[in-house]
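Researcher: I'm preparing a figure for a lab meeting and need a structural model of a single chain. I don't have an experimental structure, so a prediction will have to do for now. The sequence is pasted below. Please return the structure as tokens so I can convert it later.
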Amino acid sequence: MSYHPYDPRMAFDPERKLTDGDVHDLKPEGWWGDDGKLYRDFAFETYGAGVDFVVRVAALAEEQGHHPDLRLSYRRVRVLYFTHDAGGVTSLDIEGARAVNDLAAEMARP
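Model: Understood. Here is the structure written out token by token.
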């Protein structure tokens, strides 16, 4: 199944809660869907690198207008998406997860 952007002719609602199957098919590489949430853990060489990542994810979330929960634990960061209004994962969460993956890849480049 591929991701399709909003098209009013198809009555597709990007804020609609996705089924577990949809989440499984659409989740980006490295992400897990569990209990109606989408999450990924990122590891860093230093605490400061993790903090930098959290700040960049927060800025990205502000740009997107959709905010994940962020948990910093020493050199690990968990990013967790969940659309509260929908009661689960929506396409907005999938988009956010993809953007976080792109950010992590960009930060990993020398």
